[in-house]
UniProtKB/TrEMBL annotation:
<dbReference type="InterPro" id="IPR004788">
    <property type="entry name" value="Ribose5P_isomerase_type_A"/>
</dbReference>
<comment type="similarity">
    <text>Belongs to the ribose 5-phosphate isomerase family.</text>
</comment>
<dbReference type="GO" id="GO:0006014">
    <property type="term" value="P:D-ribose metabolic process"/>
</dbReference>
<feature type="active site" description="Proton acceptor">
    <location>
        <position position="107"/>
    </location>
</feature>
<comment type="function">
    <text>Catalyzes the reversible conversion of ribose-5-phosphate to ribulose 5-phosphate.</text>
</comment>
<protein>
    <recommendedName>
        <fullName>Ribose-5-phosphate isomerase A</fullName>
        <ecNumber>5.3.1.6</ecNumber>
    </recommendedName>
</protein>
<feature type="binding site">
    <location>
        <begin position="85"/>
        <end position="88"/>
    </location>
    <ligand>
        <name>substrate</name>
    </ligand>
</feature>
<dbReference type="InterPro" id="IPR037171">
    <property type="entry name" value="NagB/RpiA_transferase-like"/>
</dbReference>
<dbReference type="InterPro" id="IPR020672">
    <property type="entry name" value="Ribose5P_isomerase_typA_subgr"/>
</dbReference>
<dbReference type="Pfam" id="PF06026">
    <property type="entry name" value="Rib_5-P_isom_A"/>
</dbReference>
<dbReference type="GO" id="GO:0005829">
    <property type="term" value="C:cytosol"/>
</dbReference>
<dbReference type="GO" id="GO:0009052">
    <property type="term" value="P:pentose-phosphate shunt, non-oxidative branch"/>
</dbReference>
<dbReference type="GO" id="GO:0004751">
    <property type="term" value="F:ribose-5-phosphate isomerase activity"/>
</dbReference>
<feature type="binding site">
    <location>
        <begin position="98"/>
        <end position="101"/>
    </location>
    <ligand>
        <name>substrate</name>
    </ligand>
</feature>
<comment type="subunit">
    <text>Homodimer.</text>
</comment>
<feature type="binding site">
    <location>
        <position position="125"/>
    </location>
    <ligand>
        <name>substrate</name>
    </ligand>
</feature>
<keyword id="KW-0413">Isomerase</keyword>
Length: 228
């Protein structure tokens, strides 16, 4: 029986194989991407590829630069050819919940810019509906976080909690808080996202809807590739 780490590792090679010379590459965040970054760096070195990377978090940027990858600011590029990232949940329509690592705003900026967006997950992340196993992260402004949270809770009796890092609030790379929302099957992701994104104080939601091109899944039986 393979553990989730082994299942994640299985997905990496199929993603790295999609990288081509002269690409602007969006590099995601999380445990799967930490397995991916050294593989990308290895391929760049072995094949002398000219790859420019943009990263969705300070941590990914740090790891990539440690491996001598060419990383630039998102404002220095006009487009992204390919973005590779993980996800916390994937539904049958390839819609996602992301933000377990707290980088959802930067992830969404880069993943939406990408001409092609590929997601790497282990089979435990495949769900029947978004919110089945994972809470929806919502990035909110620190100034009025409590008022914003109460408005979120007013939508269909949503249960929320401010994410903590030990005994202090978790702070995103953008300097904001994350509110984790317990969802239920009845909640329509499109409607709830629209409600949230119009609240003053919400920067972005962890719903990634209609942007995934391919999901590479590590399963006990091998790698499964699901295309949009």
């Amino acid at each position: 029986m393979k553990d989730s780490q082994e299942l994640k590792r299985m997905t990496v090679d199929d993603a790295v194989a999609q990288i081509t010379d002269n690409m602007i590459l969006g590099i995601g965040t999380g445990s799967t991407i930490e397995l991916l970054i050294p593989k990308i760096a290895e391929r760049i070195k072995d094949e002398q590829l000219n790859i420019t990377g943009v990263c969705t978090s300070n941590k990914s940027e740090y790891l990539a630069k440690q491996l001598n990858m060419n990383i630039v600011d998102i404002n220095d590029v006009s487009h992204v050819d390919l973005a590779i990232d993980g996800a916390d949940e994937v539904d049958p329509q390839l819609n996602l919940v992301k933000g377990g690592g707290g980088a959802l705003f930067r992830e969404k900026v880069i993943d939406e810019m990408a001409a092609r967006f590929v997601v790497l997950v282990d089979e435990g992340k495949m769900v029947d509906y978004l919110g089945q196993n994972f809470k929806l992260p919502v990035e909110v402004d620190k100034f009025n976080w409590l008022h914003t949270t109460k408005k979120i809770e007013s939508y269909g009796k949503i249960q929320t909690e401010r994410r903590m890092n030990g005994d202090v609030p978790f702070i995103t790379d953008n300097g904001n808080y994350i509110i984790d929302c317990q969802l239920n099957e009845k909640i329509d992701p499109y409607e709830f996202h629209e409600f949230l994104i119009h609240l003053t104080g919400v920067l972005e939601t962890g719903y990634f809807l209609d942007i995934t091109d391919q999901v590479i899944v590590g399963t006990q039986q091998g790698v499964q590739i699901i295309n949009k």
